[in-house]
Specification:
Elements lengths: L1 E6 L3 H9 L8 E7 L2 H10 L4 E5 L7 H11 L4 E6 L4 H9 L4 E4 L4 H34 L1 H13 L7 H8 L9 E7 L10 H20 L4 E8 L2 E7 L5 H16 L4 E4 L9 H12 L2 H4 L4 E3 H4 L4 H10 L3 H8 L2 H18 L3 H21 L4 H5 L5 H5 L5 H41 L6 H7 L4 H12 L3 H19 L4 H7 L5 H12 L3 H8 L1
Parallel strand pairs: 1-2, 1-3, 3-4, 4-5, 9-10
Antiparallel strand pairs: 6-8, 6-9, 7-8
Length: 530
């Protein structure tokens, strides 16, 4: 209900204002009446109202004085001024006071009702908007934990975050700014989830998250937990110390007992700038890869695994951009052998110790497996379930043994890719040959055909020659000349008409091509067949 105050010194008019409209039926209660400004203020102290209708000329305190006092006291209401025509100067002053409406006497009760109902509707709309905004604020407050995780996830992924200080302040975590931090990644390898249904995977993810959260909160470090992937959680430790790897080993051990799954943890270096969260995260993920070398249920700290030797880092950095991975993608087996030889020579020239040499080789193997995965190949299908390449790597005693191991590794890859691609390439070339046989008269170029089949012109040319023993242009020319011979032998078409019919716009060029293939000009060929 909405409170309504009617202020009018003339009793008859006041009674008319109060009783000529069934205010309660329109949602107004209480409906109060006052004879002057002082009475109105006394009522306002006891009864909050939403709308006040006041005359201008009144004894003791007139309408203008009343409005000023209402504004001074901060009452929130709509004010309607009623006045006679002769009181125009009061009307002007009321407008300056920002009143809501002005009614000139005499006016019908219906007119006042219309104005009051309009303001009531405005109040209801404002109240609904306030309520909606308050609901949104409540929802925002309840979801702050999710917003914190979203912000940290953006930072971990290296996304640009603007107004970081303001966001941290709003989310209540400004205390982490300009503090040392360190990122740890705890993961259940995907191969342990292979036989699970989707529900099981999500349940395991929830169990992993809850266990790590409970164990991390039991440590002395302030931390934040981010559910990064279904099989991976990320821990961000604020102001860690040198004992963090040991504490992580305890967390990992207890989580392993609770989950009954093998886990591994990678730990990045400490940083201070929040923009470097992504750097520490990538380091933790890199360290995590060493579980393939050293086994599960261990913490791998990037500082322990990557000693800061200049030549080692130079080789390792170059390895991530090495052309060997591009050559794997295109199946260039002979070039891969040359790439491998260069890598071995770089290691030899750098005089890396056996430990660092094996780290370079293990990175090469892991990056190769990643490349195979990107290409859609199944490493298990290539190497078998019981492959011992990484285990054998730890046993090599010389660069020559390492070279033989890697040679065997890449030979198996090349053999598998060659078999897979041979089948696919044969089908592709057969499809192209059929197209040429059926559409030889069209305007066909090597580039257009390469574009049609989404491959490069050079690769199409190489593939076509390998599969047919002829290059693309020679095959197309022979097919056209074969048809031209039929037309010359069995029709009376003119030479230029035959040329057009088999795809040549220039009859002179057609004659040259015909003579190269048939040994005779088109006219000589026709004469010899008649």
């Amino acid at each position: 209900m909405f409170g309504l105050l009617l202020v009018e010194d003339e009793e008859a008019i006041k009674e008319k204002l109060m009783n000529n409209v069934a205010w309660a039926d329109y949602g107004f209660a209480p409906v109060l009446g006052a004879s002057n400004g002082l009475e109105a203020l006394a009522l306002l102290e006891k009864h909050p109202v939403k709308i006040m209708v006041t005359d201008v000329q009144m004894p003791k305190m007139n309408g203008i004085e009343l409005i000023k006092e209402v504004k001074r006291r901060g009452y929130q209401m709509k004010i309607i001024v009623i006045s006679g025509f002769a009181e125009f100067e009061y009307a002007q002053e009321s407008i300056k006071l920002n009143v809501s409406d002005y009614l000139l006497k005499p006016f019908a009760s219906k007119r006042l009702l219309e104005v009051v109902l309009r303001f009531k509707e405005e109040f209801e709309k404002e109240e609904a908007e306030r309520s909606e905004m308050n609901d949104l604020r409540d929802q925002l407050e309840k979801n702050k934990a999710a917003l914190v995780e979203k912000l940290l996830l953006d930072l971990l992924n290296g996304n640009v975050v603007t107004n970081i200080d303001a966001q941290l302040e709003f989310l209540g975590i400004s205390g982490i700014n300009n503090r040392d931090f360190q990122v740890a990644v705890i993961e259940i390898p995907e191969n342990q989830l292979a036989e699970m249904g989707e529900e099981e995977k999500y349940l395991l993810n929830l169990h992993l998250y809850q266990q790590i959260q409970r164990l991390a909160n039991g440590s002395s470090y302030r931390n934040f937990l981010v559910n990064h992937h279904r099989n991976q959680v990320v821990l961000i430790f604020i102001e860690p110390d040198d004992n963090l790897p040991l504490r992580l080993e305890e967390i990992l051990s207890q989580a392993h007992l609770a989950l009954k799954y093998a886990l591994a943890c990678g730990l990045g270096r400490p940083y201070r700038d929040l923009a470097d969260l992504a750097v520490s995260y990538r380091e933790a993920c890199s360290a995590l890869q060493y579980r393939y070398l050293y086994g599960m249920n261990q913490v791998f700290f990037i500082n322990d695994l990557n000693p800061d030797y200049q030549s080692y880092h130079k080789i390792l950095t170059a390895l991530h951009r090495h052309p060997i991975f591009d050559n794997i993608k295109i199946g260039a087996a002979s070039v891969i052998e040359e790439d491998l030889e260069r890598i071995i020579n770089e290691i030899r020239l750098a005089k890396l110790n056996p430990g660092l040499t094996k780290m370079v080789a293990s990175n090469l193997i892991l990056l190769t497996l990643t490349t195979l995965n990107e290409l859609g190949y199944n490493a298990g299908e290539i190497f078998g379930a019981n492959d011992t390449t990484l285990v054998d790597l730890n046993q090599v005693g010389s660069l020559e043994e390492l070279k033989r191991l890697l040679h065997s590794f890449f030979t198996r890859i090349n053999h598998h890719i060659r078999q897979k691609r041979a089948s696919l390439n044969h089908k592709l070339v057969e499809e192209i040959r059929r197209y040429l046989d059926e559409n030889f008269a069209a305007d066909i170029t090597l580039s257009a055909m390469a574009n049609r089949y989404h491959i490069s012109p050079s690769y199409l040319s190489l593939l076509f020659t390998e599969q047919t023993g002829k290059n693309f242009i020679d095959y197309l020319t022979e097919r056209r000349i074969k048809k031209a011979k039929e037309l010359l032998k069995h029709t009376d078409m003119k030479i230029y008409e035959v040329a057009n019919a088999v795809g040549y716009k220039d009859s002179f060029y057609f004659s040259n091509c015909f003579k190269k293939v048939a040994g005779l000009s088109p006219s000589e060929y026709r004469e010899n067949t008649e």
